[in-house]
């Protein structure tokens, strides 16, 4: 089971990367969204069947609340995906004293949903391993009881891992050092920032946006819990 989950995860990540390279869109997000859409029809059908069955005693207010939460999550995900901070950059024109204005877009969460996937895998795999020793080890049973899904410690660890992976993956994708070097090579400057302080400035800006983005992503991830 562990090998299957791990292999399947990496295959999906590889497929997502292939989609990214072909310019179709955010591959991992599209794969996850496809899975949600496939299951959504069956889930709605079961929900409406339960509403029509008097023995189920389903409260219509509860159904409306669930649908509202789903819509809210979708809206928040779209907002989080599009949100970005723009840093003004001025480039000097060749053979001219004038400048060309541009901007550097820094997304609220450049890593997308990958931190959620990595965090989930990193929590699930050890728990699956420990579950194999639950019958013979009291320590394993105790750890499993603390890290039960939807529990406080499970959710807390999930949030910490999401924040950590957001920083780690985003800093690999967007290196302040590489960005500042590219700006300088192209004759660009950030207004009000010295050339040798550009990397530090970008790093501070990215840390602020990534912190907000990681918290935002964590909230979206734990809403179903």
Automatic annotation (TrEMBL):
Gene Ontology BP terms: protein transport
InterPro entries linked: SecY/SEC61-alpha (IPR002208), SecY_CS (IPR030659), SecY_dom_sf (IPR023201)
A cellular-component GO term for this protein: membrane
Domain of life: Bacteria
Compartment(s) where it occurs, according to its Swiss-Prot or TrEMBL record: Membrane
Membrane-topology annotation of the record: Multi-pass membrane protein
Broad class of where this protein is predominantly found: membrane
Annotated keywords: Membrane, Protein transport, Translocation, Transmembrane, Transmembrane helix, Transport
Residues annotated as transmembrane: 30-48, 60-79, 112-131, 151-169
Protein family: Belongs to the SecY/SEC61-alpha family.
Protein name as catalogued: Preprotein translocase subunit SecY
Organism: Borrelia bissettiae
């Amino acid at each position: 089971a562990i090998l299957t989950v791990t292999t399947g995860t990496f295959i999906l990540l590889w497929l997502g990367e292939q989609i990214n390279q072909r310019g179709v869109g955010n591959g991992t997000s599209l794969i996850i969204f496809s899975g949600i859409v496939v299951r959504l029809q069956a889930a709605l059908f079961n929900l409406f069947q339960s509403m029509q069955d008097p023995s189920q005693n389903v409260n219509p207010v509860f159904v409306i609340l669930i649908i509202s939460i789903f819509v809210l999550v979708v809206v928040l995900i779209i907002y989080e995906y599009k949100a970005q901070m723009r840093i003004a950059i001025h480039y000097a024109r060749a053979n001219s004293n004038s400048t060309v204005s541009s901007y550097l877009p820094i997304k609220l969460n450049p890593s997308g949903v990958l931190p959620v996937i990595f965090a989930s895998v990193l929590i699930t795999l050890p728990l699956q391993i420990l579950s194999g020793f639950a019958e013979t080890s009291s320590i394993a049973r105790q750890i499993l009881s603390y890290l039960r899904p939807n529990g406080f410690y499970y959710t807390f660890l999930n949030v910490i891992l999401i924040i950590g992976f957001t920083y780690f993956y985003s800093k690999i994708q967007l290196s302040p050092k590489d960005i500042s070097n590219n700006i300088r090579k192209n004759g660009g400057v950030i207004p009000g920032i010295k050339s040798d302080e550009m990397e530090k400035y970008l790093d501070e800006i990215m840390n602020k946006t990534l912190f907000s983005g990681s918290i935002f992503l964590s909230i979206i991830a734990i809403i179903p819990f």
